[in-house]
Amino acid sequence: MANLVELDREKIPPGLFDPENAPLLTGILRGVEKESLRATPTGMLAQTGHPSGLGSALTHPQITTDFSEALVEFITPPSHRIGTLMEQLKSLHQFTYQHIGEELLWGHSMPCQLGGDNEIPVARYGSTNRGIMKTIYRIGLGHRYGRTMQTVAGVHFNFSLPGSFWSFMHQQEGSVEELDVFVARRYFDLIRNFRRHYWLLIYLFGASPALNAGFVANRRHDLEPLDGDRETLHLPYATSLRMGDLGYQSKAQEQLYVCYNSLDSYVRTLGQAIATPYEPYERIGVRNSAGEFQQLNTSLLQIENEFYSAIRPKRSAQKGETALTALCRRGVEYIEVRCLDLDPFSATGINASQLRFLDIFLLFCALHPSPLCGRAEFSRILQNQKSVVTQGRRPGLELVTPTGEPLSMHAWASELFEALQPLAELLDQAHNSSLYRESWRQQWEKVQQPELTPSAQVLRELREQKLSFHEWARTRSLQHKTSLMNPPLTAKWDKRFSDMAKKSLALQEEEERQPQPPFDQYLKAYYEQYRVCCGDNQDCS
Description:
The protein has helices at residues 23-26, 82-97, 129-145, 163-172, 179-197, 199-205, 263-275, 279-284, 323-330, 352-367, 375-391, 409-431, 435-448, 454-465, 469-484, 491-513, 519-528, and strands at residues 29-39, 63-65, 71-75, 104-105, 155-160, 210-212, 224-226, 229-234, 311-314, 334-340, 398-400, 406-408. By secondary structure, it is an alpha+beta fold.
């Protein structure tokens, strides 16, 4: 064993086990952002606009759209209770089903049948400069990567440890830093550890080993027909094709190095990518011959959201403020985990047991020592991701350790689970439950028995039911619709979301009545904020 992740009970700050300190852990805040394509009953991408009954996609705090008008995004507010979060998420699905008629919320990360790029409608957000910018950004994504890739859906998990936890750790470590500086540094410690080990989450929760052949039409790929079915392509040991070259991993971005050694290095290296021209995007141009915007700029990134990272440090931004500016001004508020496929076996795309395991995993990342990360390890992290995406269930698969040595994935996973076990016990003690240990056990069984992983279960059902990916995913989506609507949405939640929808429409109308500066002037002022992000780095060799 390489002893990469040794963390036993004795190495956890002992005060965390004191009953009076339970709020340090029960105060964890969590939120979920879950995407779903709207599809017709036959499984084609819906061509209808975002339903007005759901409110304004620009101003609604919980129901919006991502790339496409047909790509709905649900956002739960931060919650201390997993049960409350799951109730919110289910209710958002139920409310949406009341307003989309016969359409389905596609229950898989890999999309339904799409047609051509021109048949994928880009999301629209109204006539304000803010709304126009959001739409142009998406038009730019379509030109840069193709609209097809942007229809891939996922779940983002937002996580923050309470201020009392960080005050406790600040005191335990005898830090002389200002508390906000300490918190930012320790969140980046968490992020670096997450990046070293998130291949485990891809293995455990990856659920996209197969897809509809139309998704890769006219694109180079190494996928194979599933049992001779040329409409269904797969890789035998794949876990999450969504997280590979066919999904969110951009070839253009592979040359991009973002440094996670500190808040300053992260802001500067990501900001530089927004300011650095990229020749292929310069060929596209900002405007076409008719003067219409084709993208926001010709840099490697239009804005920071274009960087397809597995995890992001986040700070709630004010209207008109860039995400990087918010981070720079006020530090890290929470982290966003972005490597999770939709769970096609869950009506809401994620379940409570999975959320508990994420708590365990992220607490480990926060407590385990976290050396700085240079370019060599950055490349190894990407290499491990690709290996687990395409071959995660292959017997004997080897990964590369942070120091460059080969190590079997099973051995590394075993070390991780040994380190995670006392944290599951700690969280159960804080919550007076056994649910965290049960979640740990369920995931450990997947390491011991790869056939229990969601990716293996998807392939097994496709074979046993003798269905194409399209028909299987459509059938699952119909089943989820039935389960979500029986029993239907309660009157309490219906009124709450109806009121929110009406308020969001009124907010957009009010915003559109306000005078707007010329869009070019607005865009220039927006990018002016990124000047603070640019400069040399000294700690990112």
